[in-house]
């Protein structure tokens, strides 16, 4: 499955299962060890694999938005911000517009409620 921009929740769940099966979930959820940490080189090698898996699970039009990021966690977080539709401020904005809609001087939400219960 590839992220196409409109299937984020499904893609993210599937990718998280895949990356968890590889025992690499920490690469998506935790920052890298310090450069001075002796495990840093091993961690980087694993992270490059994760970044490759991430890039290969994205449609080509989406790759360009994350390809130059430096960790799998940066890629993961950026994709969430860009494609997760559960952005509370965006949801509020859509609700505001929905409730402002009118048809022949009647609010659409009232028309819908009236039709629904008749």
Outline the secondary-structure elements.
Layout: H1 8-21, H2 26-29, H3 40-56, H4 60-63, H5 72-83, H6 88-100, E1 102-103, E2 106-107, H7 108-116
Descriptive account of the structure:
By secondary structure, the chain is mainly alpha-helical. It has two domains: 8-85, no CATH class; 87-118, no CATH class. The chain has helices at 8-21, 26-29, 40-56, 60-63, 72-83, 88-100, 108-116; strands at 102-103, 106-107. Strands 1-2 form a two-stranded antiparallel sheet. A hairpin with a 2-residue loop joins strand 1 (102-103) and strand 2 (106-107). The radius of gyration is 21 Å and the shape is elongated. The model has no long low-confidence stretch (mean pLDDT 85).
Cα distance, first to last residue?
Answer: 43 Å
Integer average pLDDT: 85
Number of domains: 2
Side by side, the strands of the main sheet go 1-2
Give a quick account of the main beta sheet: strands, pairing sense, barrel closure. 2 strands, antiparallel
Q: What is the overall number of helices?
A: 7
Roughly how many Å is the radius of gyration? 21 Å
- The assembly state of the depicted protein chains is single chain
Range of helix content: 55-70%
Low-confidence stretches: none
Specify the overall morphology: elongated
Order of helices and strands: HHHHHHEEH
Strand content: under 5%
Which structural class matches the secondary elements? mainly alpha
- The tally of beta strands, per DSSP, is 2
